[in-house]
Structure formats: C-alpha cells, structure tokens
Write a structure and sequence with these properties.
The complex is a heterodimer of chains A (539) and B (174). By secondary structure, chain A is mostly helical. Helix content of chain A is 70%, strand content 0%. Chain B is an alpha+beta fold. Classes of the chains: A mainly alpha (539), B alpha+beta (174).
C-alpha cells in the first residue's frame, strides 16, 4: 500500500542515493583526468586520494544503502499490499543514516579521511569518519528490522500462502545484510573506534583485514539483490512475457544468501596472515556462489526468450530482435546481462586461487568491479528509478527517448572506460596510483589507455547528469498522472511453495554453521598466536 | 519443488563447469604445490632494524642459497620503496622473497611475472617465483600506503644465469 508518507520516504532515500551517485561521477572523472597526467595543474596526490576515498564511499556505501532502503520500503509496501510498519522508526533510520553520511563526508572532503573506502589500518583517519560509517550501518539495521517485521506480520495474516517473490528477495537481502555487516561492525566497534579515539594505541591489522573480508564479499550481493528483483520481477513482464520459474528464483536468492557469506578470503589470497587451506576452502565457496548467478542468467534469458517468441520472433536468435528494445526496463536488463557476462568472466579469473597473482591489485581489479557494479548493478538501479519515479510522483516519465539515450550512453561509457582499465592491469599497472612516476620503459605503453579512460569517464558523467535531469523533470512536471499500479509487484505468487522456500529461520542455522567453519579458526588464530600490533600512521 | 527439464539440464551444465574449475585448481595446487603466498609468520614490524633477519646489513640477495638450491632475497618495504632499492638475480632459478614492512600496509608485484604478495604489518610475507626472462623490471607497490604511494618502487634486474655472480655480502646496494 503506497500512501503519501511512504512516497515521500522513498523519494528522500532515492534522491539521496542518486544525488550521491551523480556527485561520485564528478569525482570519478576528476580521477581519470588527474591520473593521466594530461593537465599538470590538477596533479595532486592529496586531492586525488581524498577524491578516491570520497568516490568509493559515495558509490559503495551511500548510493547502495539509501537506494536499497528506499526501494525496499517500496517493495515491501506494494508487494505485500500493507502499510509501512512504524513510519516514525523508518524516518529515524533515515535520519541516522543521513547523519552518519554527513559525519563521514566532512573529514573525507577535508582530506582528513584519505584511507579509501576499505579503511586499511594502520593508516588512520579522523574518528568522525569511522563514527559516520558506523551510523550508516546502524541506521540500515533499523530498516532491515522494519522489513522483517512486515514479513512476519504478513505471514501471520496469510498462513500457508507463499510470500510474493519481490518481498521474498527483499527479505533475503535483509537477512544477508544483517549477517554481512557483522564483520565490519566488529572491526569498527572493537578495533577502529577505540583506536581512532585514542583509547588503545595499537591495532591488530591481520584481524582487521579478516573481519573486513567477512563483509567485503557478501556486501556485493547486498548491492546485487535489488538488481535481481528487477531482473526477475520487472523484466519478464516489461518484455511482454512472464517469469519462467518462480521457485527457481527463490532458490537462487537462497543460494546467494548461503554461499555469498562464507567466502571473503578471495580478497585475501595474497595476504600472509591466513593459511592456504582456508583460502582454498573460501575458493570453493566463491565458485559455488556462481551457481545462483548462472541460474539467474538462465531464468531471465528464458523469460526473455518466451516474450520474444510471443511477439513473433523466430529462429535461434530471432527472438532477441523481437524484444521491446525501446522499453527502458528491457534495454537496461539486456545491457546489464551483457556486462555481467563479461564481468563474470573477469571475476572467474580473480577468484582463481593461483591465477589471481597475475592480476591482484592491478588496474584489472577496479576495471572488473566497475564493469560489474556500474554495469550489472547500477544500470538496473537506474531502470528501477525510471519505473518507480512516475508512481512515487504521480507524473508521467519525462521522456522515454531520453531515458534510452541515457541507458545506452551509460553502457557505452562503461565499455570505453573499463576495457582499457583491464588492459592496463594486464600491462602491470598497479591500482590506486595518482600518477605514473616509475622510470621504466614498460610504463610508456600505459599512456594511450589512460587517455581513452578520460573519454569513458566523460560519457559516464554526462549520462549520470542526464539521469538526474530526467528524474527532476519528471518530478516537477505540471500535469499529474493517475496511479497505474505496479503489476510486477502485485503479480500472484504460485499457490504454495515448500516451507523451506518461504522463510529464513532454518537457513540462519545453516549460515551460522558455514560461518563457524570458514571464519571460526581464522579469527580465533589472532588470539591464539602472539601478534605484533602496529600503532597508527598518518598518510 | 518443480524443476523444468531444461532448468535441470542447465543446472547440470552449471554444476559441471564449477566442478571443472574447482577440480583444476585442486589438482594444480596439490599436484604441483601451487598456492598463493600464505606464510603465517609473525614479526614485530616496529623493531625490524633490531631483528636477526631484517636488520639493514642482512637485506638483499643472500650470498648463501638455501639447502634446496633456492636463492633467498630479503626486502623491507617502507614508505616509499623496497630496500635495497636495486637487486640483481639470475633468470630461470627459483627465488624465495621474504618481505616485511616497517610501517603500514604495502603490496608488491613485478609486472609481467607472477611475483606478487601483500605485505601486512606484523607478518612476514614469503613468495617463491622464477623469472624466465632476463631484463630490467620495476618492483611496484600496489597497495595505497600514503600520499607518496605513486613513488614507491624499486629496481629488479634479471640476468642470464651464466653472467650472474652471487653477492659476497648482504646489505649493500648492487
């Protein structure tokens, strides 16, 4: 049930998300320009690393968290067709998250928190940066609690019925996020905050990296699940067909929840503080989590194929041309799947236990995650924005044609930017450098690729600006439009799915067991062996 | 739960692919002992200069190879360089790098080779590699370590095995 207060709540979250996104694109373009060394006047490591830190926090934490919360409220209220539980608490959550964001933004912009969005002690930031980031997480826990309360209330009122798929996915994401955020929360509360506030002098870096790895992988599934909600719920209907299999979709979400969590050590393959047996174990889980993604690829493409054939597409590939490419939701899905295919290939390389040594911390890695994050995830956030804005504002979308231009330019921009980025990595360029100062002939080969990246960044920035413009014009249009409802959100779920595909209680025990196996000893070892903890360093 | 025949087939394909990848990795890691650097060994980063192994006069290519013939190289990573700044090693021979950081987190890689490891405060990083081709290579820091990170690099010269001479002592620039 979408009432005026909920619309306002959603719009506040989504505006903050997309505002952060557009601002982060400005920082991103500055970074490719600075790094290329084209304009000597803007060369500055201090500004560059402050910018990288801000860009990462805005994209990785602010855009995602606020978008997921806003869209989560919308999903719960519309798919369960019930009013938001405790709106005051929801606004409190928004307030806590916003306060946290502002508190972290001030030191970031002043260059007092240039520790990158991954924190990386023993380089130490201003304490307000850690406090702000912690508040953002705490606020999102309130959101997750509201979502789960609504799920429980609905199930009580509808015994024996299956939870609508959008809400099932949304609730999976809440459970996933609560598990995911524990790692970084432990790091913040027991390590970073006491250390940044001067209560303790030293920090166990190995433990901090292990706890951060706990969060670092599943957080990408927290970001991904809303995009999958679009793929499973919006896309088949927008293409003129229906979802191939509701049950398999639920299975995919549950597998992401199970396998997404206990696999963070593929971020630590090259680290000396964990033994190789643990890395191998996490490698197996990393490959296992590819299964729900492969299932998703199948289900979504099968749904699209059914839709294409229904519209008269013939032959092995004819259905692709018969799809409604001029529908923003369908276009975003097709481009997203294409980039997932390419990015997924790169991900397999990164996940490959020993081969990772060839690309670890090279420019290949940011190339990879920009393709997956910007390409697969954010393009669907943008498409969701186009879907929900008319409904939240009661206005028609300003221009479908401009929306198509925006989505195509986002896709082209990502291609132009991430292709040379991958190549630079293979040519040995480290990530996270603000200029090239190595007196080596090898680095001459890097120059042309950095120039191409400037063009890619510029296309992306223009596309992001166009996006905000379309949303703004939609919201401020004079003519109102009647609420057309949201058929994908209210699509009838299958009569009854088995209990294990309808709830999370039992799954939490399985996750607990998996986490105990994969993180129990690796965390305990820091208390069993004598570690030498360094003091804080500036930067 | 109902699974369509096509879905079932695709699931088998997906599982088969994953089994192939994981199987290949287990095979190479155990039959050929290929693992990423995972040497869980602690050290006090704050007192490297007093340590047996990483004191300034102990660094660089070690005159005596290990019992199994591997050459040992000891480096300290510190803002902003890998010390000693220049080293010379022979091509085609197994080399064990042992690295420790004096200050913050660093990472190291040599482009176009598989020499790569993180260097975490409080731990010794150990990585074994073979450089097949002679040439001059940069040794680059690949983890943000401070505002001078861009300038953190050293030089590695790989020479043909028959022109390489073992150093007579450690701790000197070659």
């Amino acid at each position: 049930m979408i009432d005026a207060n909920l619309k306002k709540l959603c719009l506040y979250h989504l505006w903050l998300a997309f505002g952060a996104f557009a601002l982060a694109c400005v920082f991103g373009e500055f970074q490719v320009l600075e790094r290329s060394g084209l304009l000597s006047i803007i060369q500055s490591p201090a500004v560059y690393f402050a910018s990288v830190s801000t860009h990462g926090v805005l994209m990785g934490f602010v855009l995602t968290t606020f978008f997921i919360m806003g869209f989560g409220y919308y999903t719960a209220a519309s798919s369960l067709n019930m009013p938001l539980w405790n709106p005051t608490l929801a606004w409190t959550s928004f307030g806590v998250c916003t306060a946290g964001t502002v508190m972290a933004a001030i030191p970031l912009l002043l260059g007092k928190a240039s520790v990158l969005y991954t924190f990386y002690p023993p380089v130490q930031a201003n304490a307000f940066f850690y406090i702000g980031a912690t508040l953002l997480v705490v606020g999102s826990w309130i959101w997750a609690a509201i979502m789960l309360v609504m799920l429980v209330q609905w199930k009580k009122a509808h015994p024996g019925q299956s939870v609508p798929l959008p809400m099932f996915a949304n609730a999976t994401n809440c459970v996933l996020w609560l598990w995911t955020s524990v790692g970084v929360a432990l790091e913040a509360v027991f390590q970073l905050l006491p250390w940044a506030l001067g209560i303790v002098d030293t920090i166990d870096v190995g433990l901090a990296r292990t706890l951060f790895a706990w969060t670092l992988h599943p957080i990408v599934y927290f970001w991904l699940i809303p995009a999958y909600i679009a793929l499973y719920c919006y896309v088949p209907i927008a293409a003129g067909g229906k979802l191939f299999s509701d049950e398999l979709a639920r299975l995919a979400f549950l597998l992401i929840l199970l396998f997404g969590l206990p696999i963070g050590f593929h971020h630590l393959y090259m680290d000396p503080e964990q033994g190789h047996e643990w890395k191998l174990l996490h490698m197996v889980g990393t490959f296992a989590v590819a299964i729900p993604t492969l299932l998703t690829g199948f289900t979504v493409v099968a749904s699209l194929e059914m839709a294409g054939r229904k519209s008269g597409g013939k032959g092995l590939f004819g259905w692709i041309g018969a799809l409604p490419w001029r529908n923003p939701t369908v276009l975003a899905a097709l481009l997203s799947l294409l980039m997932l295919l390419l990015g997924g290939f790169g991900g397999i390389v990164n996940a490959s236990y020993a081969m990772n040594a060839m690309v670890h911390n090279t420019a290949w890695v940011p190339g990879h995650f920009h393709l997956i994050f910007g390409g697969t995830v954010v393009i669907l956030y943008l498409a969701i924005g186009y879907r929900v804005w008319p409904r939240l504002c009661g206005k028609a979308l300003y221009s479908t044609d401009l929306a198509l231009v925006q989505l195509w330019t986002w896709f082209i921009g990502l291609g132009v930017m991430t292709t040379p980025w991958h190549v630079l990595g293979l040519l040995g360029q480290p990530r996270r450098i603000s200029s090239v100062n190595y007196n080596s002939v090898l680095t001459l080969a890097w120059d042309p690729y950095e120039l191409v990246m400037i063009a890619g960044g510029l296309i992306l920035l223009a596309s992001a600006a166009l996006y905000v413009y379309i949303l703004f014009r939609t919201q401020t249009a004079s003519s109102a439009q009647a609420d057309a409802g949201d058929d994908a959100m209210t699509m009838a779920p299958p009569a009854a799915v088995p209990g294990w595909l309808n709830g999370f209680l039992g799954w939490n025990l399985v996750i607990l067991a998996l986490m105990a196996v994969s993180y129990g000893y690796p965390i305990a070892q820091f208390f069993l062996i004598k570690t030498f903890d360094p003091t804080a360093w500036g930067y | 739960m109902h699974i369509n025949t096509l879905e079932k087939r695709w699931l088998y394909v997906a599982l088969g692919m994953i089994a192939l990848f994981v199987g290949a990795m287990f095979y190479t890691s155990y039959s050929r002992n290929i693992h990423p650097p995972s040497h869980v060994e602690t050290i006090d980063s704050a007192s490297l200069h007093l340590s047996e192994e990483f004191a300034e006069d102990k660094l660089g290519v070690q005159p005596q190879p290990l019992a199994d013939g591997r050459l040992q190289v000891k480096l300290v990573a510190a803002r902003y360089g890998f010390y000693p700044r220049q080293i010379e090693v022979p091509a085609g021979r197994k080399i064990v790098f042992r690295l420790a950081t004096l200050d913050v987190l660093h990472g190291v890689h040599v482009p176009m080779t598989n020499m790569s490891t993180m260097i975490v405060p409080g731990f010794v990083a150990e990585v074994t590699t073979v450089f097949p081709k002679p040439g001059e290579y940069p040794v680059l820091c690949n983890e943000y370590c401070g505002l001078g990170h861009d300038h953190m690099w050293s030089k590695l010269t790989v020479v043909a095995p028959d022109t390489w001479r073992a150093p007579t002592q450690t701790g000197v620039q070659q």
